[in-house]
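Batch manifest, entry 17 of 40.
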Amino acid sequence: MLKPKREMTKNGRGVSAKLTQSEYDEWVKLGKGRWLRSFLKDSRFERKANGNDTRRQGQEARQGNP
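Output type: C-alpha cells
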C-alpha cells in the first residue's frame, strides 16, 4: 500500500542514476520507484528482525556504547 504523498515527501531523499535508453525502459517496466521503495522497506525490516539494525548501531557508536 502506498503512503500518502505528504508522508513520502516529508523528509525525502533523492536517488538518481544515469541510464541508457534500454535501462530506462526496463526501469519503467519494473514500475519506476515502487519496487525500490518496497525492496528497501523489506530490507530494513529484515535487518531489524535479525538484530542487524545499522541505524541503531550508528547511534550507539556516536554515544560511545559498544
